Amino acid sequence: MHSRGPGVDTPARTLVGFNRVELAAGRHRSVSVTVSRRALSYWDEDGNRWVTPTGQVPVYVGRSVAELDHVGTITVR
Fold first, then answer.
1. What is the Cβ-side half-sphere exposure of residue 62, based on CA atoms within 13 angstroms?
2. CA diameter of the chain
């Protein structure tokens, strides 16, 4: 799991990208979503700057937060 630093209060999940795709029932398609470094960052009030956590960051993919089809991780360096 990634570290956001001590005392950093952030939501468990945040929408950082999306792509709209229309498919017929039973069809499959690869979809790419670009996630910016800033989208993974949080505001550090003490340092008065944006901070990007490093390490393993969970990624959830689905039609909605209630319908998650895939779960994985990305490594932020």
1. 12
2. 51
Q: 3 lies in a domain?
A: no
Global pTM reads 0.68
Spell out the residues 6+ positions from residue 38 whose beta carbon is closer than 8 angstroms to its own: 50, 52
Domain with 45, as residue range(s), is: 21-77
Structural domain includes residue 70: yes
Total number of domains in the chain: 1
Return the closest-CA partner of residue 47 out of 2, 1, 5, 11.
5
CATH number at residue 60: 2.60.40.10
Query: Over the stretch 5-63, which tens digit does the pLDDT of each residue have?
Result: 556 777 778 889 999 999 999 999 999 999 999 998 988 888 999 999 899 988 999 88
Q: What is the pLDDT of residue 71?
A: 93
